[in-house]
Amino acid sequence: MLQLKKRFEQLQKQNDSLLGQINGYKTQTQSLQQSNKEFKSEIEKLREQAEKAPEIEFPKFSPRLEKLQSTNKQLTEQLDRYKEQIQKLGQANKEFRVQIEKNYKNSLLSTPN
Q1: CA 15 and chain centroid, separation
Q2: What is the model's pTM?
Q3: Which residue numbers in the chain have pLDDT < 70?
Q4: I need a labelling partner for 86 at 20 to 30 A (CA). Which of 24, 49, 68, 78 fits?
């Protein structure tokens, strides 16, 4: 019984750790989404400026635009990786919860009245 209790506590700690990681990834994901939105807005502003001012050569905006697009691409890729990691952690969390429930039920069944 003591061994089951220790295992239960260990699984509970792992579960709490996974929940902490998930929350951290969610926060990072939200931050990346906000940065992504800001970069898209900046890119759109540059495009509008280029269209409104035909006397200004577009290549003047090009390096900045390319940098923003590159950064946007990197942020999008990182966001996708975070989303994938969140899904994996969510699945692991679900599996830990199932294991905790099984261990708890088994401990109740194996404990004499």
Answers
A1: 17
A2: 0.44
A3: 53-61, 111, 113
A4: 68
Please, are residues 94 and 19 in contact by the beta-carbon 8 Å criterion? no
Helix (H) or strand (E) holding 71: helix 62-110
Question: Phi/psi at 55 (nearest 5 deg)?
Answer: -70, -20
* Beta-carbon count within 10 A of 95 CB: 12
- Residue 61 has a pLDDT of 63
The DSSP result for 1-13, as a single string, is: -HHHHHHHHHHHH
- Structural domain boundaries enclosing 47: 2-110
Q: Residue 61 carries which DSSP code?
A: T
- Using DSSP's 3-state secondary structure scheme, residue 59 falls into helix
The amino acid that residue 84 corresponds to is: E
